[in-house]
Amino acid sequence: MTLKPETLVLHAGWxxxxxxxxVAVPIxxxxxxxxxxxxxxxxxxxxxxxxxxxxxxxNPTTDVLEKRVAALEGGVGALALASGQAASAxxxxxxxxxxxxxxxxxxxxxxxxxxxxxxxxxRGVEVRFADPAAPENFRRATxxxxxxxxxxxxxxxxxxxxxxxxxxxxxxxxxxxxxxxNTAAPIIARPLALGAAIVVHSATxxxxxxxxxxxxxxxxxxxxxxxxxxxxxxxxxxxxxSYHGAVWTEVAQRHGIGAYVAxxxxxxxxxxxxxxxxxxxxxxxxxxxxxxxxxERQVSNATAVAAWLARxxxxxxxxxxxxxxxxxxxxxxxxxxxxxxxxVGFELAGxxxxxxxxxxxxxxxxxxANIGDARSLAIHPATTTHSQLSAEERLASGVTxxxxxxxxxxxxxxxxxxxxxxxxxxxxxxxxA
Length: 433
Ligand SMILES: *Cc1c(COP(=O)(O)O)cnc(C)c1O
Prior knowledge:
The chain is α/β, with parallel strands linked by helices. It is built from 16 helices and twelve strands.
């Protein structure tokens, strides 16, 4: 039976607790697991048998979260982590070693940009940046040491959907998997179905949805033929000295699991250690259950907000896929098949001063550096998230002085519009005072 997303988030990977019959997934707040015998323990550690040994590499509560998000994205397995940052970092570190490189889209979350431009580069993994305006830029930046491509489905502030199918195809012809950060577009975009091989999420955002817990996840699409690319992908195809010569594609085949997720769990996570706590995995499972419903409401609210702002005299430009034309629209139609998303950008005629006045005038929307919450959120990037960049870098990233980013929540649309309206009025009052 192939279930739909609305059903998978409630049912995938769990029926009831085998010990008690509990329907809700229990919080298995344990570090370790009693081995029934020495033989059993030996088999677990030698990977002859799969099972829980220690919560750094696996936990029964976390396991359900991993199975559900993998099912939702259409992958074969997943690894949940302590944060989205850990997910991004580990997704790359699994494939790229010192002297290797990856090619990444320039349009990235700030934390990922820093990770790639500074932290990974300082440790010998070069990240080459490609402008996603032309998919061919990825091919041009590729050489024999390129191990992966990386991009975000719906990067803000530009909110132009990434050409997933085109770049994935360029990579697949050369044995290079595309890793897609789908944080801003769960449910509405299906990167694996478009050809991406790996999906990462900051589960902190829409998946959790209630602003309570930091978490991340890496999903193995199971749709990439690693064995066909032995030279290109040595991490998957050559004996791993850190695991008594295991070859991850062979381990995976023996157990019918994803080779990539087995590698990340058994080496990168084992050694760098950023496990999510079982409690946070539980919180994210609660959020996941209502994700499709929230996304539906958030997308319809955001579309209404975008249309309302577009008619407002104080607003010079509105950025939302529902209003795009030309190539951006064509990409949105191909990638965002479930709706245009719930992030909305807009520009105020009065520049940075008006941006700050608008934010200070909000009464209902929260002023926070976050997205994806059930509550509506706002931020003025030029004076906050993007303030460390030079003025030119800010403009190149799409942040003008008067740019405001909204993450629209599930409140009643009338109340959201009323708050935006009074905050826009407050700009004029403050400016006149
Ligand atoms: C927030 C975010 C991250 C980082 O996730 P954390 O859970 O905060 O570590 C990565 N990518 C995108 C697109 C994000 O919005």
